[in-house]
Amino acid sequence: MKIDLLYEVETDRPFDRAHQRELFEEVLSQVELADRLGYHTAWFVEHHFLVEFAHSSAPEVILGALSQRTERIRLGHGVVLLPYPFNHPIRVAERIATLDILSGGRVEFGTGRSSAYEQLGFGIAPEESRAMWQEALSIIPKMWRDEPFSYEGRFFSIPERHVIPKPVQEPHPPIWLACTSPESWRLAGLNGIGALGFSFVMEMEEFAAHMRAYREHLARARPVGEFINDQVGAFTMVFCAPNDREAEEAALEAFGWYILSTYKLFLAHTKGAGWQMLREKERAFLAALEGRTREVFDYLREHNSIVVGNPDKCIEALRRYEALGVDRMLCLMQVRGIPLPQVRRSIELFGKEVVPAFHGVHGGVS
After folding, report:
1. Integer Cα distance of 38 and 217 in angstroms
2. Cβ distance 81 to 35 under 8 Å?
3. Which residue in 27, 76, 229, 245 has the fewest CB atoms around it within 10 Å?
4. In the predicted model, is pLDDT for residue 208 greater than 90?
């Protein structure tokens, strides 16, 4: 199992321009450190309008900078939003290929749709976003293969053109999907692409069930790419410190904030009568959670939905994911509310003591 980092680029000072500059420079420095320590991939989300929660609205720029500041760590889009006009598939193919060239073939190409809140901000009809994602997904690998390329479909009409450049990785970078529902796990399997799942919103048994469904559909895949990416990645919040007490003190409030914000941001704007009933239940659920951060934190840790503690405890928690057959752990450490120097220390300790337990090599800091 490979150990990765994932970034939302979170901050509690979203409109402080001097702080924003410091934040982005620190994030780049953290990934440089992770590169030296032997982490496998650094993933960056694409989110829009999510104040404090995610300031990674242009991950292609961040990853472009990292392509010149790192040597070994792979660079992951976690994920590119494919519904248009978030991103036109031609521009996606061009940007991914360019990043692959500049990084020497280190790109992981994750895809997704985002939330209705973000879609509506770009004038995207939420009910069409999945079909738009599927159509864009199906043609991007062909742009890297066909010379020249043309296409006529429901959402995109592309006359014969040369889409350049082509990626370094042959035939193309690995393709992934962010899986937030049973349907997305199914679609990842049927499309023959990797599944990036959220483990902190469910118990291990449920995550294992999603993995089984993914594998079942993968067995009858019609791959959109030139090869099947059969890997599963699990995303969760992680914090490592020399002792459990220090780790808990750093993570408790920040992780509680992240969990509450996730529910509020991604359920509050969902459309439809059935979802309206769910939102009523969620309001009661969120009200119950307010002021009970410790109880929620303890529940998540007991059910292995978060990884917090000293290096040995982190290894123990990650072994359970490894036993499920998870291929990649995407570790979110840079969470709003945790001072950046503490995040750096967590990344360093985790990289020195935990990553080698899975990668079989010891990283070094220069």
Report:
1. 33
2. no
3. 245
4. yes
CA distance 29 to 121: 32
Size (the chain), residues: 366
C-alpha 10/C-alpha 134 separation (Å) is 29
Alpha helices per DSSP H over the chain: 17-37, 59-69, 89-102, 116-121, 129-145, 182-191, 204-218, 244-267, 273-289, 293-302, 311-324, 340-353, 355-359
State how far the Cα of 207 lies from the Cα of 327, in Å rounded to an integer.
13
> Measured between alpha carbons, how far is 232 from 188 in angstroms, rounded to an integer?
10
Arithmetic mean of pLDDT, 152-165 = 98
Is the full-model pTM beyond 0.90?
Answer: yes
- Decide if pLDDT at 284 tops 60: no
Sign of the torsion angle spanned by Cα atoms 16, 21, 26, 31: positive
List the Cα angle 259/314/256 in 5-degree steps: 15
List the alpha helices (DSSP H) in 5-110. 17-37, 59-69, 89-102
Distant-in-sequence, close-in-space partners of 129: CB < 8 Å, separation ≥ 6: 83, 113, 114, 119
Residue that is written with structure tokens 């991914």 in the block: 96
The C-alpha angle with vertex 283 and arms to 255 and 268, in degrees rounded to 5, equals 80
Residues 45-73 as b or e (16 or more Cβ within 10 Å = b): bbbbebebbbbbeebbebbbebbeebeeb
Element (H, E) at 7: strand 2-7
Point out the least confidently predicted range of 121-130, 239-248, 272-281, 286-295.
Answer: 272-281
* 158 sits in which H/E element: strand 157-161
Rounded CA-CA distance 105/170 in Å is 9
Termini Cα distance of the chain: 25
Helix (H, G, I), strand (E, B) or coil at 364: coil
The answer to whether residues 149 and 161 touch, using CB atoms and an 8 Å cutoff, is yes
Distance of CA 343 to the CA centre of its chain: 18
Cβ(295)–Cβ(254) under 8 Å? no
| Mean pLDDT within 301-317 | 93
**Calpha distance 306→246 (Å, rounded):** 16
